[in-house]
Write a structure and sequence with these properties.
Layout lengths: L16 H6 L11 H35 L6 H4 L16 H16 L3 H15 L5 H13 L3 H14 L3 H17 L3 H15 L7 H19 L44 E5 L9 E10 H11 L3 E4 L1 H8 L2 E10 H9 L4 E6 L2 E6 H4 L1 H22 L6 H14 L3 H14 L5 H15 L3 H14 L6 H14 L3 H14 L6 H14 L3 H10 L10 H14 L4 H17 L8 H13 L3 H12 L8 H14 L3 H12 L4 H17 L3 H12 L7 H14 L3 H8 L7
Parallel strand pairs: 3-6
Antiparallel strand pairs: 1-2, 2-4, 5-6
Helix pairs in contact: 4-5, 5-6, 6-7, 6-8, 7-8, 8-9, 8-10, 9-10, 9-13, 10-15, 10-16, 15-16, 16-17, 16-18, 17-18, 18-19, 19-20, 20-21, 20-22, 21-22, 22-23, 22-24, 23-24, 24-25, 26-27, 27-28, 28-29, 29-30, 30-31, 31-32, 32-33
Length: 725
Amino acid sequence: MLPKRPDVRAVPRLTGRAAFARSGGWLGVGRHDLGMIASRFAIRLLWPILCLFQLGLLIGGYRVWSHSRPTAPGPALSEPRAASPPRVTAQAISPVPLIAELGRGDDLMRQGRYELALGVYRGLVAGAAGRVPDTLRYRIALCFEGLGRYDQAVATLRVLVSQTADPVLAMAGEVGQARIWFLVGRPAEAKNLACDLILRVGDGEVSEPSLVEDARYLLGLALAREAITIDCTDPFADPCLARATLDWLAEDGLDRLAASKEPRQPAEAVEVVRADRTASGSEDARLTIFLPDTPISAVIDRVAGECGLRAEWTAAARRQADARSTTVTLGDSALPEVLEVLTEPLALAWGIKDGAVYISTRQEVGHESIAAYRITVARRALRGVVERNPRHPWAAAAILELGNIDFTGGSLEDAAATYESLAREFPRSRARVEAFYNLGQAERRLGKFDAARRALYSLVDGFPAHILAPPAYLAIGRMFFEEADTEHAISPLRRALTLSAGSDCRPAAAVLLAAAHLVTNNAAAAAAVLRENREDLKGERFRETAGLLVALARYYGAQDARKSQREARGLLSALVASETDNLLGPVGVLLRGRAYRELGLGEQMAALYEAALSQPSRGPFAAEMTYDMAEFLYGAGRPDDALAYYKELIDHPDAKWANRSRGRLAEIAFDEQRFGDAIARCRELLGTADPLHAAETLKLMGRAYEQLGDHQRAAVCFAGQRPDP
């Protein structure tokens, strides 16, 4: 029950002194009202102050946000060819917030958060209201590079090189451009920039030797990229080698920044070309050169003369070198290195013979000779940089390219040894993945399949998400095919197919996996693989092969005679359409031969197999083809030719086909009433380590003894035991 509301009429009223005291005396204010009046006064006084404080916080937060938010690139960064922005002194930026914001941007970049770092740097550009500081422009270029926006990175670096007075930053800008050209697959541009930079600052004109070493490594890698061409777009290509990648992240460029010092030149104020010829020969001379703005032909003439050599020019080479000038600042450099950086940008070739340096254009040398020349130059440059600085971050990439040069030149043992040493000595390098892959390819070419699989499994086990994992699994599956071990090929091919979504090796993995299922008589699995990957197999490269495999899967999967007859017509059409298709190699020949045999076209099968068996490299399925040829010839009434094929298989290392041939020879001897030969063949077969057909062999042996009248031994054979000889 709710309490009753009190009756105000029941409260007694105060009068006299009591009422006066209760009302607060003469002021009319009670003691209980004083606190309320004080609090109201404080609120009215402090409220405007609090409002002003909050307004100040809002304005300050807005200014911080406006300085740090990402802004659109200005014309000076995104389009360096446009009109130049207003130029004001860099001191317009207050040094304290500049340093703090640069530090924040650098921290973001080192975390790989290039977009956020770019926003910080652009905020500083917007706040500068004038000329962009060189270090800030360099950082912006690194962000573009990290984001893969290479055109903007190169454009920004060009502006930096054109405007900066800092030799370190100018050199970093040139090296950065050369690095980007190499990364995007344009080695000629990278090579020319590296040569020019080495010529001008190879003696340490700036105080950042790491940039000089970067230029030397880029030169060697670019020369190797030009010397050997490897096309890996076709997954069936042999060989398909992985190329060198740089151990480089955009944030590594921050470490290349250093305080610049005054440029250094040789002590002499005049032109200097000096050679130390205390070594064994002219090619081993060490050169010190300072020649400002000199024609290249004159530089080579003076360098050769100082080394005790004469320069022999062709007319075309002399004209080409006379038209170009350069500034050379080199110290303690070998003669071959000097000649290479002078001649490479001009596409000239040189050689030393009989006390002379011979210089000619590459067109005059000839295609085959210039190919060998390029390999020689690339190998010499790569070995030189590795010997000079073996702990450089790109040393592993240089060693990988040395292995690739040996591989493409046919020196597979040397290439394998190079790849093994790289994987062992550079356990943290990104090039280690490519080394494992190329090692697997080299061992495979050498026929060392076990070693090749170990290398490739090291790749897929240690780097399962790498782009080379699918082709590594594909190579493992192909090796099992090359050993005619089709059952073991299925698992790696399935892994290759699963991991290769969106890659070039997906259709190759699909057709090889389907072929493996067909070879192992699993038409349903083959049909499923082809159906799930039909979109990837529509290309011209795989269309005919996929059509044949689909027809084979449908024919073998037919459930009744009527459907089998209908699918037989489709299979015959597919066979005719794919007569010239050799994409699958030996396994394709085997599948077509099987199809001809199933369709009753033995003559076509024999012609196909005979052509394959007449090749020097008969392929991994030669034993099965040989057995099928023998069966066809015997059935066609050509027993002598058939016996030759059967006897060829008796000593085959694959026990499966050797024992099948022994069994067939025993059956043929029994049919021809040569019972003694049949018994001898049966004993030979029972003496092998394969007991799979022992029961059938003993039964045939017993029948032969029975025909000879030896019923006692025949009974022993029929009892499942071997009789005494």
